[in-house]
Design goal:
Layout (H helix, E strand, L loop, with lengths): L5 H8 L7 H5 L1 H22 L5 H17 L12 H48 L12 H12 L13 E10 L2 E10 L2 E8 L9 E6 L5 E7 L2 E8 L2 E7 L3 H9 L4
Antiparallel strand pairs: 1-2, 2-3, 3-7, 4-5, 5-6, 6-7
Helix pairs in contact: 3-5, 4-5
């Protein structure tokens, strides 16, 4: 299933997109659209209530006064009083400065947030593809064979979790993430099906937050949630291992810990 692109989301928000068939069928895209609407509303609210503080207006006034006093000339010129003009322009200058002060960090935050959410949507999309009945996997009872398969496809052998206690590796496959080929393997657990997706991106660039809990070996983990799925990620060497599933963060952390056993 191909999800709605950012460009089409913009068309939908502007009321220019009429083909909404996919949106009616895809919960992930509906969640992303709801988030984009919320971000747009927060931006409108932020700029609608923005007013320059008296302190900012005073600083701008002092700067203008200093600049005026510094302008000197040996030749007589016709003097024009600028005080009335400055009084009229101060509110505009102050508002413009306030907008610049707020706009730059806001734009960085929302662009970063949108990119991270798009990455999380892709991870969840890979997991959902892995759940399809017609999804084809490379399967083998020996983890070494699975590692060999992924090495032939990716150029490296990813770590595999220790199974047992009701856990079993269903198989592995390759997928596309951020226009790159990545490895993925699926684990059946008593709590449900989990996909572990191996990417080069660092957890922070995926919009994940640091967990207070750590793995059994004391390694830092990161978490996020998108749609109905939870995600827990650990960084091993040059790769991030993202466990995705409709399961609690606590259970995903337990599975991730098995990567380090």
């Amino acid at each position: 299933m191909n999800h709605i692109t950012d460009e089409r989301f913009e068309d939908i928000l502007q009321g220019e997109e009429t083909d909404l068939a996919h949106l009616r069928q895809c919960q992930d895209c509906r969640d992303r659209l709801a988030e984009k609407k919320a971000i747009a509303e927060r931006l409108r609210s932020a700029f609608g209530s923005m007013h320059a503080s008296p302190e900012l207006a005073d600083r701008i006034s002092q700067t203008l006064n200093a600049a005026t006093a510094a302008v000197t000339s040996d030749r007589p010129v016709k003097r024009v009083s600028l005080s009335s003009h400055r009084r009229q322009l101060w509110p505009a200058f102050a508002a413009a400065a306030a907008i610049l002060i707020v706009l730059v960090p806001l734009s960085v935050y929302f662009n970063t947030s949108s990119t991270a959410k798009a990455a999380q949507a892709e991870l969840v999309g890979i997991h959902q593809e892995n759940l399809r009945p017609d999804r084809e996997f490379f399967s083998d009872a020996e983890p070494e064979k699975l590692a060999e398969y992924l090495k032939s496809e990716l150029g490296f052998s990813p770590a595999f979790p220790c199974t047992g206690q009701g856990m079993a590796i269903r198989g592995c496959c390759v997928a596309h993430f951020r226009e790159r080929i990545v490895g993925s393997y699926v684990v059946d657990t008593p709590q449900g099906v989990i996909s572990i997706i191996v990417v080069t991106d660092r957890p922070k660039s995926l919009g994940m937050s640091r967990m207070s809990e750590r793995t059994r070996s004391g390694q830092t983990c990161w978490k996020a949630s998108f749609a109905r799925c939870s995600m827990v990620t650990v960084r091993l060497g040059d790769y991030s291992y993202c466990a995705v599933g409709e399961i609690s963060h606590k259970y995903l952390l337990e599975l991730i810990s098995r990567l380090l056993s």
